């Protein structure tokens, strides 16, 4: 029995400390995926809190077929999507203090090995704005599939499980998201 299996078993029996240890290293990645999906810092925080609460409440439903972290990410994605549904689909990105534009920087990271000059900085800023604008224009499904694939590095099968869609729908959502981004960024080349 692994340490994770032991903690899951203890948490199922009501051991809050075991549950805390299961999730303690996951809050940042969970927040990151929720923030990328909701595009709103407050909604992302609410989604993570709701996900952790739901994970604790439904720990008995965890059957161990998937990795605990994968299961927790699925709950978080669903909670983030639920936050968007509750809000009625209105989207406006509000970054937490000190993290403005971090997602776009991650998306564009590694493009140059040298320090950028003023022209490059202006262009990068313009690209970042376009990426953010296109992410906001995507449907919830497109953005979620794109984020899970390209930010979280999940397989198509994992994404299908998280979003409860088939492989064809998953591929189409990712394709549409990438096409929208490419179309928006093409004029900036």
Automatic annotation (TrEMBL):
DNA-binding found in the keyword field: yes
Ranges where the RNA polymerase sigma factor 70 region 4 type domain occurs: 129-181
InterPro entries hit by this protein: RNA_pol_sigma-70-like, RNA_pol_sigma-70_dom, RNA_pol_sigma70_r2, RNA_pol_sigma70_r4_t2, RNA_pol_sigma_r2, RNA_pol_sigma_r3/r4-like, WH-like_DNA-bd_sf
Domain of life: Bacteria
RNA-binding is among the record's keywords: no
Keywords from the named record: DNA-binding, Sigma factor, Transcription, Transcription regulation
RNA polymerase sigma-70 region domain: residues covered: 23-88
Pfam families: Sigma70_r2, Sigma70_r4_2
Similarity field: Belongs to the sigma-70 factor family. ECF subfamily.
Name of protein: Sigma-70 family RNA polymerase sigma factor
Organism: Tahibacter harae
């Amino acid at each position: 029995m692994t340490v994770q299996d032991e903690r899951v078993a203890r948490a199922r029996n009501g051991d809050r400390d075991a549950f805390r240890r299961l999730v303690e290293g996951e809050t940042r990645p969970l927040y990151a995926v929720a923030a990328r999906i909701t595009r709103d810092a407050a909604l992302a925080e609410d989604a993570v809190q709701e996900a952790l609460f739901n994970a604790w409440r439904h720990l008995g439903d965890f059957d161990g077929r998937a990795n605990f972290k994968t299961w927790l990410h699925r709950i978080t994605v669903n909670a983030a999507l639920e936050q968007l549904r509750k809000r009625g689909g209105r989207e406006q990105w509000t970054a937490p203090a000190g993290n403005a534009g971090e997602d776009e920087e991650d998306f564009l990271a590694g493009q140059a090995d040298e320090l950028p000059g003023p022209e490059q900085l202006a262009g990068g800023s313009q690209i970042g704005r376009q990426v953010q604008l296109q992410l906001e224009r995507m449907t919830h499904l497109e953005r979620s599939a794109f984020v899970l694939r390209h930010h979280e590095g999940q397989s198509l099968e994992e994404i299908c499980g998280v979003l409860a869609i088939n492989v064809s729908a998953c591929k189409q959502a990712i394709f549409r998201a990438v096409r929208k981004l490419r179309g928006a960024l093409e004029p900036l080349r």
